[in-house]
């Protein structure tokens, strides 16, 4: 049976633990061998640096052949649907399709078609970003060694963020205590069952172990108030300033999925502060994506020994 990863809703706490252990094994140098050649295509219909590059690096490190795909020069521009594009690359022999798309839940139609290739969601609109969430869990686990009762604040553009949505769902399922901050109009009701909205960021910061800042997604701002967005005003009310950094407890870490709007969500110098794990998240991303791809290779019976269970404790 094909293995797909499209949403964090697929991930039990045991599955998260498995992915974290596997990513740590790859980080410590574990290697796998393929029994047959495997082919991946990364289909990015929205821009990306981190996710695209780290999936490609992970594919190459695992010995997967990477076929290039450029949305602007593909037959999608002639009106070919995403489903027909996937059927086409399946017919040509691609085993794994890593897809980023602006449409929420674009993957539902692809899953219903029961294609003979695996789908990895690299981000859908404001929906899900499961590989980012897993790399975030690896980063948090490396720091604290557990998730239960950790106090995590997710602050910023909650309305447009797939990272906020998928991280909040996953952290909640793992027993973390969640808080949300940022402009109140961006706190949508689907997040309310997962945690508490705190209007005053200064009151929130002294309580947290993890401060997760979100990028203001200028490309998704649409209403008149949103397009009138004032960066300086946002920074003063919700951004991580040097004064706010001093409010964090000594054990707290700062995360941000990036790209960062320096001087908007966070003071530019604090991106590299000792408490910041922003570049560590990117580093971990490559190993977590190796873990995700390795699980898929195993499900497609493309792995020779060692089987993945031998790599984890
Ligand atoms: N965090 C993240 O998804 O970054 P990219 O858009 O650069 O892939």
Structure description:
With 313 residues, this protein is of the alpha/beta class. It has eleven helices and nine strands. Helices cover 36% and strands 13% of the residues. It is globular. The protein binds phosphoric acid mono(formamide)ester. Phosphoric acid mono(formamide)ester binds next to helix 2.
Computed over alpha carbons, the radius of gyration is 20 Å
| Alpha-beta classification | alpha/beta
Number of E strands: 9
Strand content: 5-15%
Strand order of the largest sheet: 7-6-5-8-9
Kindly report the average pLDDT value.
95
State the shape. globular
Q: What ligands does this structure carry?
A: phosphoric acid mono(formamide)ester
Q: Separation of termini?
A: 25 Å
Helix content: 25-40%
Most strands sheet? 5 strands, parallel
Write the layout of secondary structure elements.
Layout: H1 13-27, E1 39-44, H2 50-61, E2 65-67, H3 82-92, E3 96-101, H4 107-112, E4 118-124, H5 130-144, E5 151-155, H6 162-173, E6 177-181, E7 195-197, H7 201-204, E8 210-213, H8 224-227, H9 231-238, H10 242-245, E9 253-255, H11 278-299
Parallel strand pairs: 1-2, 1-3, 3-4, 5-6, 5-8, 6-7, 8-9
Helix pairs in contact: 1-5, 1-11, 2-11, 5-6, 5-11
Bound molecules: phosphoric acid mono(formamide)ester.
